[in-house]
Amino acid sequence: MQRAILLSLTVCLALVQMGCLINVGGTKVVKASESRKAVSFESDAGMSAFASHVKSSYPAEKNLGSGYFGIPFIISVHEQRVLSENAHFNAAIDKVDLDQNQVITDGELNAAGIIVKEKEPADDSAGSSGFQTL
Known about the structure:
By secondary structure, this protein is α/β, with parallel strands linked by helices. The protein has one domain. It has four helices and five strands, in the order αββαββαβα. The termini are far apart. InterPro entries: EF_Hand_1_Ca_BS (IPR018247).
């Protein structure tokens, strides 16, 4: 009797130490073949502000969730779903382009919380003609 209990405990411990017989995990890219939307920007400063916003927000916003399925000691399946870079870009365009005319204005970017910094003109007080302007 004691031998049977000891053997059962040994088998259980061995199974716990082994983990699962089949482990499967991976990442699925959603909308991988999507191409970027063609848009134009009102200003170069707006374009660079939007590009830096999209680039910085992609790591945080690309994860769409994950799924898990498992049967203890037999199988463990884990899949993470992420959004492709082009799909993230298109989603950002859809959020920003309020009138859906494929032209992104600085006002639309500001309304979306993307700060457009105007480039300061170079100090050219003498001007190209050599005269000082007031």
